[in-house]
Amino acid sequence: MAVSLAFANLAFQFNNVKVVENPLCFGLAPTQLPYLCKERRRLPSSRTIIIPGASSAPTIEDGSQNDTNAIPTPKVIIDQDADPDATVVEVTFGDRLGALLDTMNALKNLGLNVVKANVFLDSSGKHNTFSITKASTGRKVDDPELLEAIRLTIINNLLQYHPESSSQLAMGIAFGVEPPKQVDVDIATRVKVKEDSPDRSLLFVEAADRPGLLVDLVKAVTDINIAVESGEFDTEGLLAKAKFHVSYKGKAISKPLQLVLANSLRYFLRRPSTEEASF
């Protein structure tokens, strides 16, 4: 059911976000983009993404305030496999979310169209789903820089309208009212590769979340000449979970190369970040 992502060089500029020529397209050098949000603390990320802010910041976004003390785990899912023609995004925060109209407007500021929106309820809460396409082409989003901008835009709006979520989001360190507890990187990091078909393999990654992680993961994989075709990237509180369809020269990854890939990602995700000011 996977759909190949055509990662071509893109150049686009929108009202609130600018990506320069030759953005990272699964293997090319990433661009350096500043956060729109006012930075309070330094974030441990090798690159940054612009986050368009909401037009206003009331306590909730078209929803009702929940007075319970138990804070649900916020979830943002970006799925490239569910729809062949659109990128499907799902946002959940217990039953506290409303229609997310301001979030949809912020996504439009990225040069995107929300072609379909849906809300459904289950035991885990209210699930808001959007089908998103690029306004310039009418096709699904195929650039990892823009996918990460979508993710961080949604999280940024969630922090604005539901500041109590900051204790369970990595971005809460810099932009929230209550910073989250630090995640043990060694415990949180899990990497697994398995065969999916003769032509590709499935890569599963679970790690402590941070801004820019989606872009960094794709670059770490393509740096060892493995192609990332499509997949899903989930933000579940302080954790990020990725599922990528990957291949090597049009074939599934061999066992020795699977070991190389897994070890490379474990090293990349567990290595300590170094502040530039320390040099």
**Mean pLDDT over the full residue set:** 77
Strand segment count: 10
Tell me the span between the first and last alpha carbons. Answer: 47 Å
Task: State the major sheet.
Answer: 8 strands, antiparallel
How many H/I helical runs?
A: 6
Strand content: 25-35%
Category from helices, strands and their pairing: alpha+beta
Order of helices and strands: EEEEHEEHHHEEHEEH
Question: What coarse outline follows from CA principal-axis ratios?
Answer: globular
Quaternary structure: single chain
Percent range of helical residues:
10-25%
Low-pLDDT stretches are: 1-51, 53-60, 63-68, 274-279
Order of strands across the main sheet: 5-6-4-3-9-10-8-7
Radius of gyration from CA coordinates: 18 Å
